[in-house]
Design goal:
By secondary structure, the chain is an all-alpha fold. The chain folds into two domains: about 80 residues, Rna Polymerase Sigma Factor, Chain: A; about 80 residues, Orthogonal Bundle (Arc Repressor Mutant, subunit A). The protein is built from ten helices and no strands. It is elongated and about 65 Å long. The relative contact order is 0.08.
Length: about 170
């Protein structure tokens, strides 16, 4: 039985058909959740929550995208909601890249700031701009997205990339 038929049967109330869909996609959903939350127990819960949500909203699935894409989006959103609710995203970001002096809002010594600025020069202009706005000017990510006319996810992605590159540069220096 193909996936399309399984979905139709699941919408009609056939639990065995939905169980087959779960078994087929469970690994992918779990791996994605785990990659986001970095905790196996929480990833298991989010995986379960993904399939509960999918089952409850299966009738609304229009089959315009692949079923795996739809599940991925549900698991992604649930994982993001978990991280936001538990304030993990912003704190992890700040602790990974910023010197303790910036976290405490104390002045950073000139030498350290010079190294950070030097590292920033190795970034592409688009990454440098977003990083500078967020870290140095403390502009909220949503405001950066609005001001630059780009998606919020793009802002997050550029900050993530810039953070990794600057961290790598600082470790090598």
């Amino acid at each position: 039985m193909d996936e399309h038929e399984l979905i139709q049967k699941s919408v009609a109330g056939n639990e065995k058909a939905f169980t087959q869909l779960v078994e087929h996609h469970r690994g992918m959903v779990f791996r994605h959740c785990l990659s986001m939350v970095h905790d196996q127990e929480i990833a298991e819960d989010l995986t379960q929550e993904t399939f509960v949500h999918a089952y409850q909203h299966l009738a609304g699935f229009r089959m315009e995208a692949r079923f795996s894409t739809w599940l991925w989006r549900i698991s992604h959103n649930l994982s993001l909601n978990y991280l936001k609710k538990h304030h993990v995203l912003e704190q992890e970001f700040r602790e990974e890249i910023l010197p303790a002096q910036l976290l405490e809002k104390k002045p950073v010594d000139d030498e350290k700031m010079l190294k950070i600025r030097e590292a920033m020069e190795h970034l592409s202009p688009k990454h440098k701009l977003v990083f500078e706005m967020y870290i140095l000017k403390r502009v909220p990510q949503k405001q950066i997205a609005a001001e630059l006319g780009i998606a919020y996810g793009t802002v997050r992605s550029r900050i993530h990339y810039a953070r990794k590159e600057i961290k790598k540069f600082l470790q090598e220096a």
